[in-house]
């Protein structure tokens, strides 16, 4: 490991803190939308609703879609319905790629054919006196994250669901089947 200056040590500690916080991020729990994540519900017409669930980068597509159906079933029961019919359903995937470069202050700088350490008193051969003078450029790390957002528009009805309609769901059955997999906020 190269000799680290005080600034380098502070930078290393800050980087470790950021990585530790990133490791603490948990999947989005089942909750009303807050801080950009969770579900939102909107009544569009007397028996027509739209529900959207926003997951963070730790929430799988399957979880986002299950929470979406669970909320639609919950809302159907809240308004006095027994089953709901999906009119429109969509899941969007947001992908971001980040690249970070590891820089070690106090190391060596390799530029073209010339390498040196410390102050250089000879002829000027290029931009060696910039912000990374005396730094080692280590590896580049690339990380890709993805988030999912699912939306369903549905009609809530009373009575038993039609047996021949593949777009209709019994709200109580959805609650019973998905309920054990729902994770609520722990705070």
Describe this protein's structure.
This protein is an alpha+beta fold and 187 residues long. It contains 3 helices and 7 strands; from the N terminus they run H-E-E-H-E-E-E-E-E-H. The strands form 2 sheets. It has a 5-stranded antiparallel sheet with strand order 1-2-6-3-7. Strands 4-5 form a two-stranded antiparallel sheet. Helix 2 (61-78) crosses helix 3. The two termini are 41 Å apart.
- Into which percent range does the helicity of residues fall? 10-25%
**Class inferred from helices and paired strands:** alpha+beta
Report low-confidence residues grouped into runs of 5 or more.
17-23, 106-136
What order do the SSEs take from the amino end to the carboxyl end, as H and E? HEEHEEEEEH
Gross morphology is: elongated
Q: How many separate helices?
A: 3
Provide the spatial order of strands within the biggest beta sheet: 1-2-6-3-7
What is the rounded distance between the termini?
A: 41 Å
Note the beta-strand portion. Answer: 35-45%
Largest sheet report: 5 strands, antiparallel
Radius of gyration: 27 Å
- The residue-averaged pLDDT reads 80
Per DSSP E runs of 2 or more residues, the count of β-strands stands at: 7
């Amino acid at each position: 490991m190269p000799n680290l200056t005080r600034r380098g040590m502070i930078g290393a500690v800050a980087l470790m803190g950021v990585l530790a916080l990133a490791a603490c991020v948990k999947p989005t729990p089942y909750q009303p939308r807050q801080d950009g994540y969770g579900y939102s519900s909107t009544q569009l017409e007397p028996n027509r609703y739209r529900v959207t669930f926003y997951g963070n980068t730790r929430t799988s597509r399957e979880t986002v879609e299950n929470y979406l159906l669970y909320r639609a079933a919950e809302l159907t029961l809240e308004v006095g319905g027994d089953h709901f019919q999906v009119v429109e359903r969509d899941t969007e995937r947001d992908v971001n790629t980040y690249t970070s470069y590891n820089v070690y202050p106090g190391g060596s700088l390799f530029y073209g054919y010339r390498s040196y350490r410390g102050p250089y008193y000879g002829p000027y051969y290029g931009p060696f006196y910039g912000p990374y003078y005396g730094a080692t450029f280590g590896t580049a790390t690339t990380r890709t994250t993805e988030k999912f957002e699912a939306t369903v528009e549905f009609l809530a009805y009373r009575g038993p669901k039609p047996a021949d309609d593949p777009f209709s769901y019994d709200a109580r059955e959805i609650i019973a089947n998905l309920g054990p997999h729902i994770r609520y906020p722990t705070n």
